[in-house]
Amino acid sequence: MKKSKRQSDTSDSTPMALALSTLIGAAALYCAEIIYGNIKDSGAPDMGQFPGWRAHMGSACVGSLAFVITLFLLEIVGRGSRSIAVRSVAPWWPIVALTGLATVIHIPIYLVILAAAIYSPWAYFRTRAVR
Fold first, then answer.
1. Predicted TM-score of the model (pTM)
2. Please, which residues have CB within 8 angstroms of residue 25's CB and are 6 or more apart in sequence?
3. Looking at CB atoms within 10 Å, which of 32, 33, 49, 115 has the fewest?
4. Mean pLDDT of 71-93
5. Measured between alpha carbons, how far is 117 from 102 in angstroms, rounded to an integer?
6. What HEC string does 92-129 produce?
7. Which of 39, 36, 95, 41 is nearest to 63 (CA)?
């Protein structure tokens, strides 16, 4: 009886982990954009052949990768199991793959944002469902 009551009293820390991971991912994206801007402003000779869309999508890829890695680490700490953490983070990998693909080939940013906005609620509910 006590064990079932204890299990029902445990709170789900996934929303907090997702919020913190989103914050870290946004910070990583911002830092990557700052680094790109500083390199571009310094007059690096190789930056002329580097298209701007590739740099910005690379920053988005860095941000989404930081989001997934942070979520994975927080899920390991919160749930105490690597296999559960991998299963809870797995729905977010297609967003990392999409931003990585958009870095290699030109996919307009509005399509990437639209795809991520449509896909994210499903990934959120899949992450919450893993227990």
1. 0.85
2. 63, 64, 66, 67, 70
3. 49
4. 91
5. 16
6. HHHHHHHHHHHHHCCCCHHHHHHHHHHHHHHHHHHHHH
7. 95
